[in-house]
């Protein structure tokens, strides 16, 4: 018995076809830009001359020296820096100044400053979206259209998910016919080859593409995803401690703050630190703890007093709810980081599949259209009547 009734199948076929024809180019853009973004940091370092590292990667000798270099290069920027900490302490260090006066009206356009930690030299001052790697990121994440584009990307991700589900539903074979449904007949007709290539590309990469589309839509639509999750499983709150400086007490260096963070959680790997603004008293350290799915964007935090080193608050992702766990897995599943380098390579390769699906889908649609027009012409052609001479 077929999986779908003829009328239901016709609806799914029409939906799948017109989503593919109407939005296929957008889905291809998502795939190709997503493939690049899996390795966008490495690509940026490779194509930006100022970031070239002809010798060994520089070693961080002092985190305070990095912060000093940032503050000396930009003394007017007094609201604190967000510094990315490489887990091995090697390589150029990039910090973000989140709301520079020059780009206040933009949805997201921080200043990115890259420092050589061995020399303290500032190598690059760049605004997000104004160089290749981050331009591609903005295209993928919000269609270069700010907050509205961000929402549109989420809706398009849901439509991509619907198209993929439709393709799998249309392909799903009857019981006992899975072997035949997975065959590629290279010796068959051109139409058959187009169909088999489209089918196998969708089935072979379908699970990965479903995950990428679903997680991408969820990341772009947090306002749609987090409230229902919170109702099902209350989310771990994000603390917001307050503190002030104590007159006469010296400030801790950034190195001392990070030592304090590691002493609080000895098994942790600090990955980002937000330095306090002028006259502010709190460092926020974002840190990875064992078991966390994302080393680059972990979900555990410490708030540390800038003078006493006291831990004012913490957010321990190991105590998170099921809803928090779902949110924690979205980004590392979307970029493949959850499965280390093999997962990233798989996500990168999967980003090429929408192009293959669009090309083979268009060829399949053209084959069916030609066949349909040929049937119409054959019905409309007048019958051939033999003349008298041909009867003799």
Describe the structure.
- The chain has an eight-stranded antiparallel beta sheet, covered by helices on one side.
- Residues 387-392 have low confidence and may be disordered.
- The chain has helices at 6-37, 40-47, 63-73, 132-142, 146-171, 178-181, 190-220, 222-232, 254-264, 322-334, 340-350, 353-380, 388-391, and strands at residues 82-84, 93-97, 111-115, 122-127, 269-274, 282-288, 300-305, 311-315.
- Among the domains are: 6-38 and 139-233 and 347-369; 49-130, Nuclear Transport Factor 2, Chain: A, CATH 3.10.450.
- It is built from 13 helices and eight strands.
- α1 (6-37) crosses α5, α1 (6-37) packs antiparallel against α12 and α4 packs across α5.
- By secondary structure, it is an alpha+beta fold.
- The protein is elongated.
Structure described in brief:
The chain is of the alpha+beta class and 392 residues long. It contains 13 helices and 8 strands.
Largest sheet: 8 strands, antiparallel
Helical proportion?
40-55%
Question: How does the overall form come out from the CA principal axes?
Answer: elongated
Distance between the termini: 54 Å
Topology as H/E string? HHHEEEEHHHHHHEEEEHHHH
Provide the spatial order of strands within the biggest beta sheet: 4-3-2-1-5-6-7-8
> What do the pLDDT scores average to?
92
Number of helices: 13
Number of strands: 8
Q: Report the structural category.
A: alpha+beta
Contiguous runs where pLDDT drops below 50 for at least 5 residues = 387-392
For the CA atoms, what is the radius of gyration? Answer: 28 Å
Strand content: 5-15%
